[in-house]
């Protein structure tokens, strides 16, 4: 009987030790220093013991992650977001419009000797304002954009030369255009963009209708004091005739004055006046749009 109790005690001891090995991290040489198994590891042990295939699958997934055969959930989400963004770009859902690709060096320079000249309804300071909106710089942006749509590279300089001294405007703008020509020697067409002054009695600016919309008229000033006066006049006449051919009634007047207006720099210099101070800015912008199309036709013929 004593032997039987001894065997039972030994069996109980063995069961106790085996149970301890399951619930402890055991170093057989030092069981007393083992740490507790945390809840996550305990769950894995239990699943592994009850369903051996589950443990096998978990091991396989871990190996595949290590070898890059499957991606972590966060990586998958990131990839999906990237693919969706790429699809939006491919299907034209981008908020920015596609721009015409422009190659080569600039052919046109636009600048403003009297950059503060403004249109209706911007009447402050006798139709002169430092802010860009509603001024000849605003119209210059339209001219630039339309030329670039035609594949013609443009440099648009918006330096204000007529503030604080109006009388020094042409001296200041000469320094600007000379610097621009040095920087962009490929630019053959130089436009000094102004607006005209309406008579005091005028209630509205001069305009025609193009495609049903009121469009300001334009004119060109040729300086007779320039040695290249004949070439300048011929170029202005060419523009006026082309404008009339493309849009009936749009041909611009050519005004001659005994000054040079810095037009001696090239035979393709143009002092362009778009509308006058009694034209609205909308009418002036439309004039810039259609004038750009006229100029683009001439440039394409000459190049």
Describe the structure using short key phrases.
alpha/beta; 303 residues; 6-stranded mixed sheet; 14% strand; two-stranded antiparallel sheet
Describe the structure.
- There is one protein chain.
- The chain is an alpha/beta fold and 303 residues long.
- Helix content is 47%, strand content 14%.
- It is built from nine helices and eight strands.
- Helix 2 packs across helix 3, helix 6 packs parallel to helix 9 and helix 8 packs across helix 9.
- The longest helix has 22 residues.
- About 28% of the residues have low confidence.
Short description:
This protein has 303 residues and is of the alpha/beta class.
- Please report the distance between the alpha carbons of the first and last residues: 121 Å
The main sheet orders its strands as 2-1-3-8-6-7
User: From the helix content, strand content and strand pairing, which structural class follows?
Assistant: alpha/beta
Query: In this structure, how is the largest beta sheet organized?
Result: 6 strands, mixed
**How many H/I helices?**
9
Number of DSSP strand runs: 8
Radius of gyration: 40 Å
Secondary-structure element order, N to C: HHHHEHHEHEEEEHEEH
Query: What helical percentage do the residues reach?
Result: 40-55%
Shape: globular
Strand content: 5-15%
Uncertain runs: 19-103
Overall pLDDT: 78
């Amino acid at each position: 009987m004593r032997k039987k109790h001894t065997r039972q005690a030994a069996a109980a001891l063995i069961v106790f030790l085996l149970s301890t090995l399951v619930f402890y991290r055991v170093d057989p040489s030092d069981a007393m220093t083992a740490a507790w198994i945390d809840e996550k590891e305990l769950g894995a042990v239990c699943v592994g013991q009850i369903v051996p295939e589950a443990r096998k699958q978990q091991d396989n997934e871990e190996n595949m992650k290590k070898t890059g055969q499957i991606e972590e959930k966060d990586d998958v989400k990131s990839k999906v977001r990237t693919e969706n963004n790429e699809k939006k770009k491919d299907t034209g859902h981008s908020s920015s419009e596609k721009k015409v690709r422009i190659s080569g060096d600039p052919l046109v320079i636009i600048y403003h000797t009297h950059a503060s000249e403004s249109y209706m309804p911007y009447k402050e300071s006798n139709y002169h304002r430092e802010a860009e909106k509603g001024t000849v710089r605003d119209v210059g942006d339209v001219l630039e954009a339309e030329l670039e749509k035609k594949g013609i590279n443009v440099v648009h300089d918006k330096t204000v030369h007529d503030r604080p001294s109006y009388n020094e405007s042409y001296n200041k703008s000469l320094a600007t255009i000379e610097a621009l020509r040095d920087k962009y020697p490929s630019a053959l067409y130089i436009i000094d963009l102004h607006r005209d002054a309406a008579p005091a009695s005028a209630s509205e600016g001069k305009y025609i209708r193009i495609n049903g919309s009121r469009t300001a008229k334009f004119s060109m000033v040729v300086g007779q004091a320039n040695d290249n006066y004949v070439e300048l006049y011929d170029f202005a006449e060419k523009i006026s005739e082309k404008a009339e051919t493309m849009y009936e009634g749009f041909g611009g007047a050519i005004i001659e004055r005994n000054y040079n207006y810095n037009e001696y720099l090239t035979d393709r210099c143009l002092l362009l006046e778009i509308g006058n101070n009694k034209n609205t800015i909308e009418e002036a912008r439309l004039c810039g749009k259609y004038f750009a199309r006229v100029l683009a036709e001439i440039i394409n013929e000459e190049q």
